[in-house]
Write a structure and sequence with these properties.
Layout lengths: L1 H38 L3 H26 L7 H19 L3 H25 L4 H21 L9 E2 L5 E2 L4 E2 L3 H22 L2 H11 L1 H6 L4 H27 L1 E2 L6 H14 L6 H20 L6 H16 L4 H13 L2
Antiparallel strand pairs: 1-4, 2-3
Helix pairs in contact: 2-6, 2-9, 2-10, 2-11, 3-4, 3-9, 4-9, 6-9, 7-9, 10-11, 11-12
Length: 337
Amino acid sequence: MAQAAGPLWEEIVKRKQRSSKTVVMLVSLSLTLLLPLALGSNQYNMALATTVLMFAAVSTAWNIIGGIGRQLDLTAGAYLGLGAFTTGILLIRWNITPWLGMIVGGIVAAAFAALVGWPLFRFKVKEVWYALSSSALVEVLRVIFLMWDKIGGPVERYLPYYSFSLYHLRFSSYIPFYYLMLAMLLIALFVNYRIINVRLGYSLLALGEDEDAAEVLGVNAHACKMRALMIYAFLVGVIGGIYAYMYGFIHPNFFSVTMSIEVAILGIVGGIGITYGPLIAAVLLVSARELLRANLGGGMEGLYLVLYGTVLILIALFRPRGLATLLHRTSRRLTSH
């Protein structure tokens, strides 16, 4: 009886953990869906909430290549910019609805990822060299679009304004964009979950631990990394299309190295390879950054960056494995009693 009690107790604990996670997810989703009702007509708060969801969605997509695949990718700004420009130009020049343009933008971003990823992975460029190469591509694209007057140029290209138009994806409120970003976040979370539980996820995890050993066991490193990179790029490209219409214009500064670095920081601080880690980091850090900027940016310029950097250092010192581990530990303590 004593021997049988051990496995039985372990199964009870596992079921309690699964049920507690389900409850937390349902409560969190319900609160997120109802948040616009609480914020009401305060457009600043809605813009802040939408920005948090955007960073959460992009960093969750980054987790596919950066967390599961352990590639320090700094190209998110490139894929976001390509998605934004593709979606915007298709409407401005040919009046093609953004609903189609976003998909095309995702395809363009994935194609660019394949173009740059093939040689980098073929010649086994990784770690800091991969990070430097990928971040340089963002700046190269920014300069190209600044000089390309027919598509980009130094002046903003404003999208047609409508107070409410589903076809043109233009609204006078941030609420529709909030739900669009929430939808992209849920899709990114689902894709992460699916990848982790199929062969591609197992292969990426093995490559992240020891690439040479994984290849000896038959894992095709080049093919696995390419698939992960293109899925990540497609998701960010689609988000880029929504991003352009949320702000109502496109500009080469959308190709931002700073954003690429911040997305990677959120993925790392949230917890490398943990599906919900980037989401937790985005909710806490992006909210803190924007609130500090709003309250301190005008009077004491730059102080909010000092405080933001201090928070990151403290997290690195006391939670080196990521913020998600704190939630996981709390959940285990609650279910163990």
